[in-house]
Automatic annotation (TrEMBL):
Keywords: Amino-acid biosynthesis, Aminotransferase, Pyridoxal phosphate, Serine biosynthesis, Transferase. It is an enzyme of class 2 (transferase). GO terms for cellular component: cytoplasm. It comes from the Eukaryota. Residues 5-353 form the Aminotransferase class V domain. One of its GO terms (molecular function) is pyridoxal phosphate binding. Its cofactor is pyridoxal 5'-phosphate. It comes from Polarella glacialis (Dinoflagellate). Belongs to the class-V pyridoxal-phosphate-dependent aminotransferase family. SerC subfamily. Pathway: Amino-acid biosynthesis; L-serine biosynthesis; L-serine from 3-phospho-D-glycerate: step 2/3. This is phosphoserine transaminase. It holds the Pfam family Aminotran_5. GO terms for biological process: L-serine biosynthetic process. Its EC number is 2.6.1.52.
Length: 366
């Protein structure tokens, strides 16, 4: 499509063009039913068909065990991590958090409103550039759950394995690497993800939840009805009006994912793209630098600085990048520098334009 740029935003982010075009084709008259998905009742047969297919595709694509519930909820990943303690603390009253970035830190803070959030590890002293070794964790076997953020979007830190927390129910925030590689769902009690990075527009979260956390047994008395996983799951994710259009766009993204080879395809693409960009950074002799430890680097979000964090040169970089159609490369406002997000919607070609530009910018400015 004419005039589109390479959008490296951390989310909402670039979507596969094929998905956008299909949505465009179906926009004003969905499959001949005479109305747009935006306009239809969520209880009608067309929309129920979309929602049911979305759930089926999620189950197929991620190999969700059949006894796990698939929950689609509004409020994004933030409402999900806010509702974790309300649905999981039960009588235990405390939750462990493996904190490796800003999102894990926020999730922990929320737990302290209703119980005790404990940092089983916290890499803040390294400015969130590492994943502490298991021997350094202080896990509490009596914790109601152990939470980790599989990919820290702001800091560019990603887990390369599923943490082993023994018998404590494991909870994962997979917002920013969801649908970018296979997930071992059965090792988790809860996997949740806002979908606006790798699976659609903003407006909702997808969760896979083990049955013993949707039976209401561990639900706090003060839990708002809207945050109750039991209520939401019992109502098949339609306790109230869902984010219908967002769910539909996700359904199209899932359909496309199945067509091109499932999550294995996205994993292969992600490895390639991340390899190209880290290669360009490593090959720059220090002109570009990624602060994250090599074994903790994210395939999705790549933070980097230029000439040791020279703000003037970084500004110039961002301005010149735009002339090559390379957009949204500024780092998160809390860390500065640059950041390129390489979600599913970013084609290899976009990363190739970026790395070519990085090379020529380096040659002109070093
Ligand atoms: N967790 C992670 C890892 C995220 O990247 C984000 C959003 N950037 C959130 C949680 C919060 O998601 P939302 O904005 O959907 O509430």
């Amino acid at each position: 499509a004419e005039g589109r740029v390479y959008n490296f935003s951390a989310g909402p982010s670039q979507m596969p063009l094929e998905v956008l075009e299909e949505i465009q084709r179906e926009m004003v008259n969905y499959k001949g039913c005479g109305m747009s998905v935006m306009e239809m009742s969520h209880r009608g047969k067309e929309f129920m068909g979309i929602a049911n297919q979305a759930e089926k595709d999620l189950r197929d694509i991620f190999g969700v065990p059949s006894d796990y519930k698939v929950m689609m909820s509004q409020g994004g990943a933030t409402l999900m991590f806010s509702s974790i303690p309300l649905n999981m603390l039960g009588t235990k009253g405390k939750g462990d958090y493996l904190v490796t970035g800003q999102w894990g830190e926020k999730a922990l803070k929320e737990c302290n409103k209703y119980g005790t959030g404990q940092a089983a590890c916290n890499s803040k002293s390294t400015k969130f550039t590492t994943i502490p070794k298991p021997s350094e964790w202080k896990l509490d076997p009596e914790a109601a759950f152990a939470h980790y953020c599989d990919n820290e979007t702001v800091n560019g830190v990603e887990w390369g394995y599923t943490p082993d927390v023994g018998n404590v129910p494991l909870v994962a925030d997979m917002s920013s690497n969801f649908c970018s590689r296979p997930i071992d769902v059965s090792k988790h009690a809860v996997v949740y993800a806002g979908i606006q990075k790798n699976l659609g527009p903003s407006g909702m979260a997808v969760s896979f939840i083990r049955p013993d956390f949707v039976d209401g047994k561990n639900e706090a008395k003060i839990c708002p009805t809207y945050c109750s996983w039991k209520t939401t799951v019992d109502a098949e994710s339609m306790y109230n009006t869902p984010a219908c259009f967002t769910m539909y766009a996700m359904a199209e993204y899932l359909k496309y994912t199945k067509k091109i080879g499932g999550v294995a395809y996205w994993a292969e693409q992600s490895d390639k793209k991340a390899g190209m960009l880290y290669g360009a950074i490593e090959g720059s002799d220090g002109f570009y630098q990624c602060p994250v430890a090599k074994d903790a680097r994210s395939r999705m979000n790549v933070p980097f600085t230029i000439m040791g964090g020279d703000e003037v040169i970084e500004k110039k970089f961002l301005a010149e990048a735009q002339k090559q159609k390379l957009f949204q490369l500024a780092g998160h406002r809390s860390v500065g520098g640059c950041r390129a997000s390489l979600y599913n919607g970013m084609p290899i070609e976009g990363v190739s334009v970026l790395t070519d530009f990085m090379k020529s910018f380096m040659d002109e400015n070093r």
